[in-house]
């Protein structure tokens, strides 16, 4: 409850900060408009100007408003409230996720994704209804109390409802390089409880859905005309442990070819810069 009180207070402060800046911008716009009107009126009456020693008492009555003090923490949260920053939350338990959804409702912002989300299966329907993604491990669980109620069917159960957004990810330096195999494990666990996940569906767990959670689905995530994509051609079904990357295209350039492996490692660190091709 203490954590939640802190979250709510932070967003309440951000709302107040947002109102202060909105008021300042309105006052500034009004001031600038009045100043422009006075300048125009002054030009029109230049022929009937007052003597040099005469003073315009109204000129000193209007003063340019001062901006509120900037607070970078509250500014960030205000950008969340405006919908300019997407919200990703590190959260394990279903009750915590439900609480954060309530906070989002209270303050009027959208949560893009919960990360880890080992109990997301308990509220899969609610996540789908709200358009919230869940980035989950295939089978990690039980290493701390928050992860104790995780199940191996979590990912496919979250993926089951209509309009769902399930993502497979990994904190492992090895697993993150083999998300296709992590997804395959979840497909197998799904089949054991009667949920058959087609490969065309499962591939979205590591392509389109992550792009959607980042707000980039119109630019990346699927192979379509006009989108940016790095492409891997596999020797077999990519959800098989026997599949190998056959060819890899990065930015439209063939960067790996199993039939003609490079004699030394290549880097794209200088890609697009002069002399880049001359370096390994």
Brief overview:
Helix content is 38%, strand content 12%. The chain has 8 helices and 7 strands, in the order ααβαβαβαβαααβββ.
Write the layout of secondary structure elements.
Elements: H1 2-44, H2 72-82, E1 87-91, H3 94-107, E2 111-116, H4 124-130, E3 133-136, H5 154-159, E4 166-168, H6 179-192, H7 199-202, H8 208-213, E5 231-234, E6 245-250, E7 253-257
Helix pairs in contact: 1-2, 1-3
Task: Provide an overview of this structure.
By secondary structure, the chain is an alpha/beta fold. Among the domains are: 86-220, TIM Barrel; 230-280, no CATH class. 38% of the residues lie in helices and 12% in strands. The strands form two sheets. A four-stranded parallel β-sheet has the order 1-2-3-4. A three-stranded antiparallel β-sheet has the order 5-6-7, with no helix packed on it. Helix 1 packs parallel to helix 3 (94-107). 22% of the residues are buried. The model has no long low-confidence stretch (mean pLDDT 90).
Report the strand count: 7
The span between the termini is: 55 Å
DSSP helical segment count:
8
Largest sheet: 4 strands, parallel
Helix/strand order = HHEHEHEHEHHHEEE
Mean pLDDT: 90
Identify the CATH homologous superfamily of the domain at 86-220. Metal-dependent hydrolases
CATH topology of the domain at 86-220: TIM Barrel
Helix content: 25-40%
Quickly name the level 1 CATH class of the domain at 86-220.
Alpha Beta
Round the Cα radius of gyration to an integer and report it: 28 Å
Low-confidence stretches: none
User: What share of residues are in beta strands?
Assistant: 5-15%
Q: How is the largest sheet built, in terms of strand order?
A: 1-2-3-4
Q: In terms of structural class, how would the helical and strand content be classed?
A: alpha/beta
Shape: extended
Using the 3D structure, state the CATH architecture of the domain at 86-220. Answer: Alpha-Beta Barrel
């Amino acid at each position: 409850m203490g954590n939640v009180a802190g979250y709510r207070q932070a967003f309440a402060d951000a709302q107040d900060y947002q109102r202060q800046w909105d008021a300042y911008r309105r006052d500034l716009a009004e001031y600038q408009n009045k100043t422009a009107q006075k300048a125009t009126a002054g030009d029109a009456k230049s022929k009937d100007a007052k003597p040099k020693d005469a003073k315009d008492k109204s000129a000193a009555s209007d003063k340019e408003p001062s901006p509120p003090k900037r607070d970078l923490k509250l500014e960030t949260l205000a950008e969340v409230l405006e919908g300019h920053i997407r919200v990703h939350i590190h959260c394990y338990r279903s009750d915590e996720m439900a609480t954060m959804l309530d906070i989002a409702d209270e303050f009027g912002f959208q949560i893009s994704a919960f990360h880890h989300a080992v109990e997301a299966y308990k509220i899969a329907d609610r996540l789908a209804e709200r358009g919230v993604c869940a980035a989950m491990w295939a089978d990690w669980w039980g290493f701390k109390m928050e992860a104790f109620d995780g199940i191996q069917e979590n990912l496919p159960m979250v993926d089951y409802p209509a309009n769902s957004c399930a993502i497979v990810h990994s904190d492992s330096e090895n697993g993150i390089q083999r998300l296709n195999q992590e997804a395959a494990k979840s497909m197998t666990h799904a089949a054991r409880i009667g949920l058959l996940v087609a490969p065309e569906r499962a591939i979205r767990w590591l392509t389109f859905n992550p792009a959607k959670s980042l707000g980039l689905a119109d630019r990346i995530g699927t192979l379509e005309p006009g989108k940016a994509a790095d492409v891997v051609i596999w020797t077999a079904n990519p959800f098989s442990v026997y599949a190998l990357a056959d060819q890899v295209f990065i930015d439209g350039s063939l960067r790996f070819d199993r039939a003609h492996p490079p004699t030394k490692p290549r880097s794209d660190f200088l890609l697009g810069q002069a002399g880049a091709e001359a370096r390994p």
